[in-house]
Amino acid sequence: MPLELLSRLKNETAACHARLENALDLMRDDLRRDEYIALLERFYGYVTPWEDAVAACMPASLSDFFDARRKATLLAADLAALTGETQYVACVQQADAHDDLPRMRNIGDAFGSMYVMEGSTLGGRFIAPHVAERLDLAPGRGNAYFDGYGPRTGSMWKAFRETAAASVPERHYDDAVKAAIATFDSLHAWLCPETADVGRLHPAPGAV
User: What are the backbone angles phi and psi of residue 32, rounded to the nearest 5°?
Assistant: First the structure.
């Protein structure tokens, strides 16, 4: 059964994953510095309240597991490096916790949503060096968010999969899948509103 959860998450989010990846198009050669900064601001506005929402669904036994995966501070550091602000504070418009973020009410919701964000670290291994090259960034200065866990990315992803499989009961599998789809869709709407065709998104009943 544990493998069924991860398989369902991968297969049932494939379409919305591809749409978001294509809309972001971070591997293009004409990426501009101002575009990149604007995108990081949008990420920061989403990730900051998202982390609080997920943390509220995590049992105390998994608080350290989740805290080790928080990345809002990496976004703040990237923005500080790119804008010259010594301390980048939450002056960026943030996603409304009720209207823009997927609603998370149980551990299935939390892990389904985390599947999206943790999975993005795999692609980040390719995005981080590309961004550094295109924008002439110093090592670790401005691309820390996409670099994620660096050389630990593979092991952190493996640990996430194992913990998700061990922590989410079968009765919450549907919730996990719905939350993952809702996360992809809300990210798309928040990061790329100009391409987020409402008719093509897949809001999950009770999950958004």
Answer: -100, 155
Topology (CATH level 3) of domain 2-200: Heme Oxygenase; Chain A (1.20.910)
Percentage of the chain with pLDDT > 70? 86
Give me 104's structure tokens.
């998370």
State how far the Cα of 74 lies from the Cα of 76, in Å rounded to an integer. Answer: 5
Rounded to an integer, what is the distance from CA 123 to the centroid of its chain? 11
pTM score:
0.89
- Domain limits of the chain? 2-200
Torsion sign, CA atoms 53, 110, 164, 20: negative
- Model pLDDT for residues 142-192, shown as the tens digit of each residue: 999 999 999 999 999 999 999 999 999 999 999 999 999 999 999 999 999
